[in-house]
Amino acid sequence: MTSSQLLKVAEEFGSPVYVYDAEKIATQYNRLTNAFKGVKHLKINYAVKALSNISILKFFNTLGSGIDTVSIQEVNLGIAAGFKPEQIIFTPNGVSLSEIEQAAQLGVQINIDNLSILEQFGTNHPDIPVCIRINPHVMAGGNSNISVGHIDSKFGISIHQIPHLLRIVENTKMTINGIHMHTGSDILDIDVFLYASEILFETAKQFNNLEFIDFGSGFKVPYKKGDIETNIEELGQKLTTRFNDFCKNYGKDLTLAFEPGKFLVSEAGTFLTHVNAVKQTTSTVFAQVDSGFNHLIRPMLYGSHHDINNISNPKGRERFYTVVGYICETDTFGNNRRINEINEGDVLAFKNAGAYCFSMASNYNSRYRPAEVLWYNKKTHLIRKRETFDDIIKNQIEVNFSSKKEKELVK
């Protein structure tokens, strides 16, 4: 989308507001499928947690995608969006057996990463095939909070526990139809990814009834000009060759699966804010916007970078600003950023706001969550209304303190 189109969105729908470009989503999806066109059976399962708006899910359905879910609520959301159960994989962590059984009853693919839960599920439901999430003990990812395949991670069944896993499978007579791993997000070195894949291939050899191997995702997208990103095309070429060789030796054409989230939607999203005030202190010029980490927490939580552009004054001379929000704690989107001169009332556009931005938003400080807009077929479509005060209080229950007894309790 152009700056003028984004300004029209801010004018029509107010701010703050998230805007998603459907064309960019489709481009990323096609880029990934083209990179692995040499694989006979490829399945892309979009990771719902990245951006879960039902219209976004419906759009992925039109592209031919499946979905990766981590909660029973996401499973139900996917079904409401039109996905068939067989298009959904359920990969929870630390949930109850009953939640997994709820998902299984709906007919989705179950993915288990805990030996205790595996044994219980296999004992109760030996006829339901399951996938197993392996922890390859490979450190990958751009931040410790998003590296999930290392030895101290809570995710996955350790490769050192494979003998125990095999005993459970033998004792319960359950069927393992898939092997899965996810090492982390923002993967830079594809050789590390390929190394972890070899561990997955070795593990897969020990199961005779596999239908698919799921390599997770975590592909890095660029966050600023000249930024490094995962070379999907090179990865596709190398992993395709290795996967096809494995299938030949395995004696069966398996499905190669991925579960990308950020890779598909991050660059498609822009977050628009208005500048409330420009405040100069003895050492810093602050641009104070009408939002905060209640709407975009990633810079504060992960130290993530979001390019910030002044789309109201794109040709203004560049100055240095620290862009901050209106939350009552440290709430900094970007320190000492070079941005075209900012005036009060200008619209600032935050890039890479498609993944883990609205989905991690909250009502902290009793602020409303913003609207969401989809740019599709050269038109804007409101896909989520801005919250109101009624949304803040709709589930709250007021206590009547007017009775004599309750007044005594207050004393």
From TrEMBL:
<comment type="similarity">
    <text>Belongs to the Orn/Lys/Arg decarboxylase class-II family. LysA subfamily.</text>
</comment>
<comment type="pathway">
    <text>Amino-acid biosynthesis; L-lysine biosynthesis via DAP pathway; L-lysine from DL-2,6-diaminopimelate: step 1/1.</text>
</comment>
<feature type="binding site">
    <location>
        <position position="329"/>
    </location>
    <ligand>
        <name>substrate</name>
    </ligand>
</feature>
<dbReference type="InterPro" id="IPR022643">
    <property type="entry name" value="De-COase2_C"/>
</dbReference>
<keyword id="KW-0210">Decarboxylase</keyword>
<comment type="subunit">
    <text>Homodimer.</text>
</comment>
<dbReference type="Pfam" id="PF02784">
    <property type="entry name" value="Orn_Arg_deC_N"/>
</dbReference>
<dbReference type="InterPro" id="IPR022644">
    <property type="entry name" value="De-COase2_N"/>
</dbReference>
<dbReference type="Pfam" id="PF00278">
    <property type="entry name" value="Orn_DAP_Arg_deC"/>
</dbReference>
<feature type="domain" description="Orn/DAP/Arg decarboxylase 2 N-terminal">
    <location>
        <begin position="24"/>
        <end position="266"/>
    </location>
</feature>
<keyword id="KW-0663">Pyridoxal phosphate</keyword>
<keyword id="KW-0028">Amino-acid biosynthesis</keyword>
<feature type="binding site">
    <location>
        <position position="302"/>
    </location>
    <ligand>
        <name>substrate</name>
    </ligand>
</feature>
<keyword id="KW-0457">Lysine biosynthesis</keyword>
<feature type="binding site">
    <location>
        <position position="218"/>
    </location>
    <ligand>
        <name>pyridoxal 5'-phosphate</name>
    </ligand>
</feature>
<dbReference type="InterPro" id="IPR029066">
    <property type="entry name" value="PLP-binding_barrel"/>
</dbReference>
<feature type="domain" description="Orn/DAP/Arg decarboxylase 2 C-terminal">
    <location>
        <begin position="18"/>
        <end position="354"/>
    </location>
</feature>
<comment type="function">
    <text>Specifically catalyzes the decarboxylation of meso-diaminopimelate (meso-DAP) to L-lysine.</text>
</comment>
<dbReference type="InterPro" id="IPR000183">
    <property type="entry name" value="Orn/DAP/Arg_de-COase"/>
</dbReference>
<dbReference type="InterPro" id="IPR002986">
    <property type="entry name" value="DAP_deCOOHase_LysA"/>
</dbReference>
<feature type="modified residue" description="N6-(pyridoxal phosphate)lysine">
    <location>
        <position position="49"/>
    </location>
</feature>
<feature type="binding site">
    <location>
        <position position="356"/>
    </location>
    <ligand>
        <name>substrate</name>
    </ligand>
</feature>
<dbReference type="InterPro" id="IPR009006">
    <property type="entry name" value="Ala_racemase/Decarboxylase_C"/>
</dbReference>
<keyword id="KW-0456">Lyase</keyword>
<feature type="binding site">
    <location>
        <position position="298"/>
    </location>
    <ligand>
        <name>substrate</name>
    </ligand>
</feature>
<feature type="binding site">
    <location>
        <position position="356"/>
    </location>
    <ligand>
        <name>pyridoxal 5'-phosphate</name>
    </ligand>
</feature>
<protein>
    <recommendedName>
        <fullName>Diaminopimelate decarboxylase</fullName>
        <ecNumber>4.1.1.20</ecNumber>
    </recommendedName>
</protein>
